[in-house]
Specification:
single chain; alpha/beta; Four Helix Bundle (Hemerythrin (Met), subunit A); Rossmann fold; 2 domains; 8-stranded mixed beta sheet; 12 helices; 8 strands; elongated
């Protein structure tokens, strides 16, 4: 069954990245049709990659690698795409790491953070389903207590998955909720606790205070927790994703990334820039709203799709 799904998954990822890949692919064709690799073409390529959200360090590194082997030689657009895909894959490959559960934790606590609207709550549900498929018992904590819609949405997912959920009144204390959820998870011997959180970046100070308090309270019961702090990023936000990583890394001690909405007008190049700048593990990417639309991150598939390289290359 998974073999049947795979082409659909890749096709949707490619479609989601088409905004980025079309820009990169057509730009490379424009630059390198009947052109040698010289200072002018290298500068044009570097500008193209920066405009495609890959970031200055990655753009410079790719151009330096190309210049080393191909300077002042004829080079086809296809060869440039291939070299670019290889470089991007090499950057991303060490960071492609599944989100593993340590069975000794009971529960293994995963704090999920990110801005409102980025897909946190849906990602929690999708992760929960994956953990259930791995025979782990799960519990949710609806910690985005200021948004009734987020609480209601997580309740619906908990009902669908048949798992426990801990909630509190709207506007209630998120840290107290996390404390109660861990106590319940420990008492019921659950394998995994997934905690939703608020994402109000417009008031960074309040967000910092709340997340810091949540972490302190969690650690009163489980000093080594949270065992993972996952930042959910919306792939359509482009360079804004870098500032989100910066904030949440400082505030919440982010340990890994999940990128969502790769089925839309994704600006996927930013994931490469984020990898270069922060070096955080990339656990999974999402290409839709369905429960199965979250998959482990594959660096080579992503790199080929991003530069518009044919699937059979």
């Amino acid at each position: 069954m998974s073999e049947e799904k795979k082409p659909g998954w890749l096709a949707r990822m490619r479609a989601g990245l088409s905004r980025s890949s079309a820009k990169i692919s057509s730009g490379i064709t424009d630059i390198f049709t009947k052109a040698k690799l010289d200072d002018d073409t290298l500068e044009a390529l570097e500008d193209l990659l920066i405009m495609a959200d890959l970031g200055v360090p990655t753009a410079s590194a790719v151009c330096e690698a190309l210049a080393k082997d191909k300077y002042n030689k004829d080079i086809s657009p296809e060869a440039v795409k291939e070299a670019l895909a290889e470089k991007i894959a090499a950057i991303l490959e060490p960071l492609a790491k599944p989100l593993d559960i340590n069975a000794q934790n009971r529960p293994h606590v995963i704090l999920v953070v990110g801005v409102n609207g980025g897909g946190k709550t849906t990602t929690i549900a999708k992760l929960g389903r994956q953990f259930q498929d791995q025979n782990h018992s799960i519990i949710f904590a609806a910690g985005d207590t200021f948004r009734a819609a987020a609480v209601d949405q997580l309740k619906v997912w908990a009902d669908r998955l048949g798992c426990d959920i801990v909630t509190t009144k709207i506007g209630g204390d998120a840290a107290g909720l996390a404390f109660d959820a861990i106590k319940q998870g420990m008492a019921s011997n659950k394998d995994v606790l997934l905690i939703d959180t608020a994402g109000r970046l417009q008031n960074k100070e309040n967000l910092m205070d709340e997340l810091a308090k949540v972490r302190r309270v969690i650690q009163k019961l489980m000093p080594e927790a949270p065992h993972d702090t996952i930042l959910v990023l919306d792939a359509t936000t482009g360079q804004n994703a870098l500032s989100q990583i910066e904030v949440f890394k400082d505030v919440a001690g982010v340990t890994g990334l999940v990128m969502t909405k790769l089925d839309g007008t994704a600006r996927g190049g930013v994931l490469v820039a984020a990898a270069e700048k922060f070096g955080l593990p990339i656990h999974a990417i999402g290409v839709g709203e369905k429960i199965e639309d979250l998959r482990p991150f594959n660096a080579q598939d992503f790199a080929r799709a991003l530069v518009g390289q044919d699937e059979d290359v």
